[in-house]
Amino acid sequence: MFKKLIIKNSFVANSAFFILFSGFFFYQILVATGIIFPYLGAYWGVANFILLPSLLFVYLLSGKLSVERGNVNDLFVFAYISYFFIILLSNGLLLEGNNKIVWTHFSSLIQFLTIFLIFRMIEIEKKHFVVLCLLCWLTMSCVILYYGVNGGANFQRNSAMVESDAIASYQEIGFVYFIFSTINILFIKNKLIRYLFYIVAMMSLFLNGSRSDLGAFLVVLLVLEFFLKTLKIKFLWVFLLILLVPLTIEYAINFFPDSRVLGLLTPSNDGSVSERLQMFEQGLNTLDENPFLGDYGSYQPGHYIHNILSVWVDLGLLGFLIYSSLVFFSLCYAIYQISWLHSKSKYLILSLCFLSVSVVLLILSKNFTYLMVPAGLGLLSNFTERNK
């Protein structure tokens, strides 16, 4: 009975994965190039809203939310979701907070739950899933490399009539591409092919202008190639790399003067970096004035702290402790399973990649609604249940 439920759950989750992630990417390309009209808006929010009921139904029907099934992690995830929802409800209805921020967070909460459930029940080792995932990645890479212009992918060459709010930014495109890249890399055993894969993935993320996702992919590379020791990197190659990096950076800056990625190397001239520093200072002032409860929505929409302290501002000290503990201890558990118990599960390795990326980017550039977090948490619960 249990195995039958896993099959049913994985079918729903696998279908939802491609509908959400690959569906979003290709829908965006078709809209941005003017091939189709944006009937579904930007697609991402609508797809999450439509997929959530079926995912939640099969999840609850299978009785996965229970201590007996060995997934205490699920209970903590839903505790965080419940706390977040209470904060939204109190600010949206009782305190009449900034409605735009409340609605944005409510949408983020739906996306958090949807992605958690997808990766909680997904079956990544099925042959048809692996093949389809690779085909999607190859097509995405071709599209990004074709439209890459001056360090930033320009999908809107032929879409002058398309409303701007229906076109996703480089961040959403980069996030989806990163997910497919990381999953595919787990199944590439040949060294040469893996090297080529790394090069193509990093070139695509660079041309897309996805600074965070390019950095995230480098974190994944470190996790897979150094922490897991899948390759024996000789010191000579490391030394040569160190010598080549400064020359490569200098050449790249001159060749791609408008690149957002290379803009990080000259932060004094990067408006995005300066703006985020201002937001950080404002957020610290908010925490200084409201250290325990925070001050939900005390900023203009989009002008939040771009790191993990954003959860403290919006959800208070308790919310910060719940969220940071959930992410940090989940990462520690994944490291423990791999380092000490020598687990080789692809679910666990993928979870480790996503959680490692989450911790790094939550410290440096992402706020607490970052959707890599539920993906990593879902995979960890997935592994825990399969490992029983």
Summarize it.
With 388 residues, this protein is mostly helical. The protein has one domain.
Written account of the structure:
The protein has helices spanning 2-32, 44-61, 72-94, 99-121, 127-147, 170-185, 191-208, 211-227, 235-255, 260-263, 271-289, 309-339, 346-364, 372-386, and strands at residues 148-149, 152-153. By secondary structure, the chain is mainly alpha-helical. It has one domain. It has a two-stranded antiparallel sheet with strand order 1-2. The model is unreliable at 230-256 (pLDDT under 50).
Topology:
Elements: H1 2-32, H2 44-61, H3 72-94, H4 99-121, H5 127-147, E1 148-149, E2 152-153, H6 170-185, H7 191-208, H8 211-227, H9 235-255, H10 260-263, H11 271-289, H12 309-339, H13 346-364, H14 372-386
Antiparallel strand pairs: 1-2
Helix pairs in contact: 1-2, 1-4, 1-5, 2-4, 3-4, 3-12, 3-14, 4-14, 5-6, 5-7, 6-7, 6-8, 7-8, 8-13, 11-12, 12-13, 13-14
Largest sheet: 2 strands, antiparallel
Coarse shape = globular
Any idea what the radius of gyration is?
A: 21 Å
| Low-confidence runs of at least 5 consecutive residues | 230-256
Strand order of the largest sheet: 1-2
Q: Which percent range fits the helix content?
A: over 70%
* Tally of DSSP β-strands: 2
Beta fraction of the residues? under 5%
What distance lies between the first and last C-alpha atoms, to the nearest angstrom? Answer: 16 Å
Q: What letter string, H or E per element, gives the SSE order?
A: HHHHHEEHHHHHHHHH
The tally of domains stands at 1
Overall SS class? mainly alpha
Mean pLDDT score, rounded? 83
Number of helices: 14
